[in-house]
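User: quick one, sequence for these tokens?
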């Protein structure tokens, strides 16, 4: 007696929406991995985002900015500024007031 093989339905390619969601998820995960708080000396997410949106990519670049440049970053508030100044003191890289 011959066995009949089950016919498999042809698979459809993923929809454009599914592809966009997969790319967005991967991108968010990659960004999250890149902007880890440990790499930024324990700064809050808000402070890291201030640097990120300004194009500052590393902690070294952030510490190289003067106090005035840091203060004028987009979304920089008093708490984030105080947090960054405390980090500078902790790391011993306090910039002169200019």
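Assistant:
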């Amino acid at each position: 007696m011959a066995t009949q093989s089950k016919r498999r339905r042809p698979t459809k390619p993923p929809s454009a929406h599914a592809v966009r969601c997969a790319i967005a998820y991967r991108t968010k995960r990659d960004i999250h991995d890149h902007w880890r708080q440990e790499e930024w000396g324990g700064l809050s997410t808000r402070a890291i985002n201030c640097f990120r949106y300004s194009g500052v990519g590393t902690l070294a670049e952030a510490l190289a900015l003067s106090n005035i440049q840091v203060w004028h970053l987009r979304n920089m508030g008093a708490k984030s500024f105080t947090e960054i100044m405390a980090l500078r003191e902790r790391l011993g890289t306090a910039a002169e007031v200019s």
